[in-house]
Specification:
7 helices; six-stranded antiparallel β-sheet; 193 residues; 2 domains; single chain; 35% helix; two-stranded antiparallel sheet; alpha+beta
Length: 193
Amino acid sequence: MKNVSYFKFQAKNLFHDFKLDFMQDGENYVFAPRFFDINAIISAFNVDIDNFTLMKAQHVIAQMVGMASWNELINSPENILEQKKIVLDNSNFKINRQKIYNIDLSGYEKIDQGKAGDYVLKCPLLPELKEIMSLKPNCYFMSCNKTDLKKLSADTAHIYVNVVPQNASMRILVHGVYFPDWYAVSVKNIGNM
């Protein structure tokens, strides 16, 4: 039964990432997920963002581990659940949060302020930030208000960080590494922001 509880917890985390950690900028959604790669899940499982429920989150979790439905997953024998837990833990849909960073970002130039309390900092090429930049992007970034993304693209002497204080996270902006648009690597940061 402990594995069933695990999958229930993961479904709640997925639901939380969809419903509580997003901002709407006009027609577009900007996610700040903590547990799952929301953009990849939307593409892979054809998720309707506007009508996403906990029940749909449970169904997506089941699909991630190769099961047809939530019922099939939670009614599986314990040894199958243990295998499926390993599959989910190592899934490309999960954000690797094992490392929590402690980077002091106080004192760097704030170049933009978002409506939801987030802001963009212009930082030097700190080794810790460069390390995070090398990770696979896990969310999309849209300009807060006045950030000139073309200007940022040309600046190779700085790293731009979107700080999201409400969930103690930061997004290191990445352009053109994996995608033609601006994406970010979202991680937890317990340092001064």
